[in-house]
Amino acid sequence: MNAGTREGRGSRTSTVLGRRLGGELYKLRTAAGRTQLQAAKEISATSTKIVKMESGWVPMRDPDIRVLCEFYGVTDGQFVTGLLDLARLDRERRKAKGWWQHMPIVGGLGEYIAMEQVATRVRTWQPALVPGLLQTPEYIRALGVTSNWSHPDEIEALVTSRTKRQARLWGDGPLEFHAVIWEAALRQQVGTAEVMRAQLDHLVGMAKLSHVHVQVLPFRAGRHHGVDGSFNIVSFADPGALDVGYAETLGSTLWAEGAEANEAYSRAFARVSRLSLAPHDSVSLIAAISKGM
Predict the structure, then answer these.
(1) Mean of the pLDDT values across residues 149-178?
(2) Are 93 and 15 in contact (CB under 8 A)?
(3) Dihedral sign of CA atoms 69, 70, 71, 75 in order
(4) Closest residue by Cα to residue 112 from 206, 246, 274
(5) Which range scores top for mean pLDDT: 34-43, 90-99, 136-145?
(6) Which residue, among 56, 6, 70, 63, has the nearest Cα to 26 in the 3D structure?
(7) Can you tell me the distance from the alpha carbon of 211 to that of 178, in angstroms, rounded to the nearest whole number?
(8) How far apart are CA 48 and CA 117, in angstroms?
(9) Higher pLDDT residue, 242 or 168?
(10) pLDDT tens digits, one per residue of 234-279
């Protein structure tokens, strides 16, 4: 797993999606026993371009990906389609001029938000807080007051940025969102009791949407894999597109840019999901906690 910061090199930028795609091409090349110079000759380029492609510094053309996959002996058509999907999304991501680019409060979340805008599905495990896409403005403000956001303008900017992100859950082609929340996050009062009740009631309402799936991992499940930290898994356009895992730690942002790391995230999410209550029972528990709040 690598730190997910964006770095500029001339007019080019290394992006998470570009590095994810480049990492896959690097694995294919080395598994096939090909050199960067040999790969470069196949696409009539220099070895420097292959280095930049494999490092995620440049957008990739579909013809180059197809030629390289054939040169590396890739016969899985669905896998190649996934690489092409990822390349297309990375090109769109590089050209995007989104609202988040003009909000300093977003900070290191800019890369994640840009990916969220082109994703089709997000899975999230949250042991301590209600997921950001399901938070009410009052809950967000309460979080801001108890964190490092001391100025009212900063807190309102945080509310604005988070509610703008929530727009992905509405309109045509809404984001499919699957959240697994530890029971502790629902019982931990953030703000006043009224704020927390409204937040829990909002969760119940959002869970009724066909594209929003909410599960609660109850206390009685005992010790479980995933209790140590939250994470998101972002999935893209068409079947076969490669997932990207994302996690925040104290002072850093981590991206899962390799297949093994992303598989580990997927296994962890599957485990906590299996241990959790079914969506209907989860909603019943959330409503009961709200009633007793």
Answers:
(1) 87
(2) yes
(3) positive
(4) 246
(5) 34-43
(6) 56
(7) 8
(8) 31
(9) 168
(10) 987 665 567 889 987 766 678 887 778 888 899 999 999 999 999 9
CB burial of residue 34 (10 Å; 0-12, 13-18, 19+): middle
Whether 226 and 271 have beta carbons less than 8 Å apart is answered as: yes
Q: How many angstroms separate the CA atoms of 126 and 226, rounded?
A: 9
pLDDT at 204: 98
Q: How confident is the model at residue 6 (pLDDT cuts 50, 70, 90)?
A: very low
Distance CA 125, CA 128 (A): 9
More confident residue, 159 or 108: 159
The identity of residue 52, as a single letter, is: K
Find out if CATH 1.10.10 is the number for domain 104-292.
no
Q: State the Cα torsion 234-91-3-129 to the nearest 10°.
A: -30
The span from the CA of 27 to the CA of 278, in Å, is 38
133-137 long-range contacts (CB < 8 A, ≥24 apart) are 133/165, 133/166, 133/168, 133/169, 133/175, 133/177, 133/179, 134/166, 134/177, 134/179, 134/202, 134/203, 134/206, 134/212, 134/214, 135/162, 135/199, 136/195, 136/198, 136/199, 136/202, 137/163
pLDDT in tens, 136-147: 999 999 988 776
**Domain map (residue ranges) of the chain:** 2-95, 104-292
CA dist., res. 157 & res. 144, Å (int):
10
CA end-to-end span of the chain: 39
Are the C-beta atoms of residues 244 and 168 closer than 8 Å to each other? Answer: no
The second-level CATH assignment, the architecture, of 2-95 is Orthogonal Bundle (1.10)
